[in-house]
Task: inverse folding
C-alpha cells in the first residue's frame, strides 16, 4: 500500500491527497417531507453557514429535524426546530 509518490498512477496523483468516499461528488442537501415528498438542492458547501438558512427557509418551525451528527447541524434546536440526531459511528 505504501510506496513512492512518483510511482502512483497519474489519475490518483491528479486527485490530490484528500481521501474519503464521495470527495469528488457534488454535495446535495435533501429534505424528506411527510407523504414521501423529497426536496433536494445542490449546495456548494456542507458547512453550517449555507445549510442552516436552507433549513430555516424550507422547514416549518416546530418540525422535527432528523440529521446525522455532522457539525453543520448543532444550533438547529435553538432556531425553533425539534432536533433528533443519528450517530453513524455508533451504527445507528
Result:
Amino acid at each position: 500500500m505504501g510506496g513512492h509518490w512518483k510511482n502512483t498512477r497519474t489519475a490518483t496523483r491528479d486527485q490530490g491527497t484528500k481521501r474519503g468516499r464521495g470527495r469528488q461528488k457534488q454535495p446535495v442537501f435533501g429534505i424528506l417531507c411527510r407523504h414521501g415528498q423529497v426536496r433536494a438542492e445542490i449546495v456548494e458547501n456542507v458547512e453550517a453557514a449555507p445549510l442552516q438558512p436552507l433549513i430555516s427557509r424550507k422547514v416549518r418551525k416546530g418540525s422535527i429535524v432528523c440529521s446525522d451528527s455532522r457539525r453543520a447541524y448543532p444550533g438547529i434546536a435553538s432556531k425553533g426546530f425539534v432536533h433528533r440526531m443519528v450517530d453513524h459511528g455508533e451504527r445507528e
Q: What stands out?
A: The beta strands are 28-32, 38-42, 64-68, 82-86. The mean pLDDT is 81. The longest strand covers residues 28-32. The CA atoms of residues 22 and 49 lie 21 Å apart.
